[in-house]
Amino acid sequence: MSLQVCEIFFSLQGESTRAGMPCAFVRLTGCNLHCRWCDTRYAWDEGRPESIEQILRHVRAFRPRRVEVTGGEPLIQGETLALLKALCDEGYETLLETNGSLDILPVDRRVIRIMDVKCPSSGCHEHNRWDNIPALTARDEVKFVIATAEDYAFARRTVASHHLLGKCPVIFSPAAPALAAEHLAQWILSDRLDVRLGLQLHKIIWPGRDRGV
Ligand code: SF4
Fold first, then answer.
1. Which CATH class is domain 2-205?
2. Distance (Å, rounded) from C-alpha 213 to C-alpha 206?
3. What is the mean pLDDT of residues 61-66?
């Protein structure tokens, strides 16, 4: 039983409500989508097989408090569910970054699920799996990557129609380089929208580094 692993590293959380906190990352290989704004294209096909025990050994060496499993899209690999359970069993605060197109229900209940809702300019919004939304809990998070005014209007409508603000933290992130953070900030403030502006902290700290951060 093994997983295709693109990279394992220790860094600061760049996104989510835990932005700025130390975290071990397990980036798995492969994705079922091809979003226009994808900044981890190397994870689509680069990787090597590792058993869950090998992954756990890598992670333990960092002595982290939290671990995020990301991609690519982690849930396209069947063994990901067992990896998430094993990380929870080891006592890590365990996060999963998922693109929102696949069923999140089988994921261990202890895992914090950070789920994308894809906006129109990504070219992948028709893959949003709306059945996931009722499964979200207050521990989970929803993220919209926004590149255009149309994306913003879509995100705003989705937040309202699915009552997301009463459910879990909602993050709006500007898609670099298409949308300046300042514009998105202004839209949020003008609309008095109680969402969190998410900036990719790792890109501010380590500009030009696209791996291992
Ligand atoms: S879902 Fe994520 S990893 Fe996959 S193509 Fe989109 S942005 Fe890239």
1. alpha beta
2. 8
3. 98
Distance 33 CA to ligand 1 centre (A): 6
Helix or strand run (H / E) with residue 85: helix 80-89
pLDDT > 90 fraction of the chain, expressed in percent and rounded: 92
Q: How far is the CA of 34 from the centre of ligand 1 (A)?
A: 6
H or E element, residue 102: none
Helix (H) or strand (E) holding 36: none
pLDDT confidence bin for 170, thresholds 50/70/90: very high
Structure token pair of residue 168: 């879990």
* Closest residue to atom 3 of ligand 1, CA basis: 72
Rounded to two decimals, what is the model's pTM?
A: 0.96
DSSP 3-state of 213: coil
Here the contacts of 78-81 (C-beta below 8 Å, separation 24 or greater) are 79/1, 79/2, 79/3, 79/52, 80/3, 80/28, 81/106, 81/107, 81/108
Residue 97 CA, ligand 1 centroid: distance in Å: 10
Q: Give me the mean pLDDT over the 177-203 stretch.
A: 95
Report phi then psi at 140, rounded to 5. Answer: -85, 175
Taking a C-beta distance cutoff of 8 angstroms, is the pair 9, 54 a contact? no
- Please check whether residue 133 is in contact with residue 163, taking contact to mean a CB–CB distance below 8 angstroms: no
pLDDT tens sequence across 71-105: 999 999 999 999 999 999 999 999 999 999 999 99
Q: What is the pLDDT of residue 30?
A: 98
